[in-house]
TrEMBL record:
Compositionally biased region (Polar residues): 314-356
Annotated GO MF terms: RNA binding
Residue stretches making up the RRM domain: 65-133
Name under which the protein is recorded: RRM domain-containing protein
Region ranges (Disordered): 250-272, 307-393
TM helices/strands, residue ranges: none
InterPro entries: Nucleotide-bd_a/b_plait_sf, RBD_domain_sf, RRM_dom
Pfam (any one): RRM_1
Domain of life of the native organism: Eukaryota
Organism placement in taxonomy: Eukaryota, Fungi, Dikarya, Ascomycota, Pezizomycotina
Length: 393
């Protein structure tokens, strides 16, 4: 006979169980995070050791794993800084028998852990791609009486209720140490740390025993199904992976990308906007911050595109003598389009010329010097995102 009891979570199916009483007001940190947040919100970052010794050596040299030879405190800080961009998390570093590091990243929300898993092998740290896997942890144990007597649900509640919330339990028939049939209970704790504390507490208990089982997660409560980011129903082993290597490489961050300005929109002086910016920045000694230069170049090129579109819109069409710009007579007097009509009348005087080097020089000088004044700057550069980075150039 097998009898299962599943204890519903009072906080809901996607929330953490209520904390143990002594953990109610604890501040989350790396030591107690697995006793405060759900096991499904924990991921493992590190190794996947092949069976072959030869492959293991190759794996150590070229694998997707944490860097070797870094101080554990430094490694924990760097891993936490990397994954904190996804959500609040707490990192614990552990070394295996081969002295290879592995990190348990305990997020505070299950959705953040799912996001980290969706990235797969596309997060890089210390010049190494990280391998991320689900780490539910072992939290199931066998509970029974030391004298071989059968246990009941009341025994479980009385003996284990103070150890932390229980997610599920199952009662089964088993042979005791005297060769007689009895009833034992397999108990799954809601939190990994509560399970570890309970196993330690019952080592010297004279009435009951609690033996940890080599079972990860909850064998009685399946995890709520979530559609994976990339689902493949093929039975071909070569297509079972969540992503192909080509897709993973495309998803990896390859730094700053910028669509170059077409030649017809460049200044009519034979030099591009980028050439002018770099020349002026070099003459003023501003060329040390490459990211700032790229921001300035992109802002000026965006202004060039916008100016080209305004000229194209205000220029009469070749097959029609009327202007493309809507006439002010189409709208009622005093409407919101009056200001637009005023802009149109100004632009009908003729297309504006492309910016000359003098215009670029003054604009570059304003942008690179960090001047708060926006007078004389193009409309797009006056709303440029804040460059109040403490890093001086």
């Amino acid at each position: 006979m097998v009898l299962h009891f599943i204890f519903p979570n009072p906080n809901g199916p996607y929330q953490a169980y209520p904390r143990r009483q002594d953990r109610q007001f604890q501040e989350p940190n790396a030591r107690n995070a697995q006793g405060l947040f759900p096991p499904d919100a924990c991921v493992f970052v590190g190794k996947h050791v092949p069976l072959s010794v030869f492959l293991a050596i190759i794996w150590i040299l070229t694998s997707i794993s944490l860097a070797i030879g870094i101080n554990p405190e430094t490694l924990a800080r760097d891993v936490q800084e990397k994954f904190s961009s996804i959500g609040r998390c707490h990192v614990k570093i552990k070394l295996d028998k081969r002295n290879l590091p592995g990190a348990f990243v305990q997020f505070e929300k299950v959705e953040d852990a799912d996001t980290a898993l969706a990235w797969g092998e596309n997060i890089k740290l210390h010049n190494r791609w990280l391998r991320i896997e689900r780490a539910r942890g072992k939290r199931t144990a066998c509970f029974g009486s030391r004298d071989g007597a059968p246990v009941t649900q009341d025994h479980v509640s009385m003996a284990l209720g103070w150890q932390g919330p229980i997610e599920a339990c199952g009662f089964e028939h088993a042979l005791n140490q005297f060769g007689m049939w009895t009833i034992i209970c397999k108990v799954t704790f809601a939190f990994v740390d509560d399970f570890k504390d309970a196993v330690k507490a019952f080592k010297k208990n004279p009435v009951y025993y609690l033996i940890p089982l080599d079972i990860e997660g909850s064998p009685l409560v399946p995890r709520p199904y979530r559609q994976p980011p990339y689902y493949n129903n093929s039975n071909d082993p070569s297509t079972r992976r969540r992503r192909t290597k080509e897709i993973a490489d495309l998803m990896r961050d390859k730094g700053h990308t910028r669509v170059p300005l077409p030649a017809e929109l460049q200044p009519k002086t034979g030099h591009t906007v980028e050439e002018y910016v770099r020349k002026e920045a070099h003459s003023r000694g501003y060329d040390q911050d490459e990211q700032l230069l790229l921001d300035v170049i992109q802002d000026l090129e965006n202004e060039q595109r916008a100016k080209h579109l305004r000229e194209e819109w205000s220029t009469p069409s070749s097959d029609n003598s009327t202007a493309r710009t809507p006439s002010a007579s189409m709208y009622s007097s005093g409407s919101a389009f009056d200001s637009f009509s005023t802009d149109v009348q100004i632009s009908e005087a003729g297309p504006q010329t492309q910016p000359q080097p003098e215009y670029l020089e003054s604009t570059i000088d304003h942008l690179l010097s960090g001047d708060s004044s926006t007078a004389g700057l193009p409309r797009s550069t006056s709303t440029i995102r804040s460059r109040s980075r403490s890093k001086s150039i």
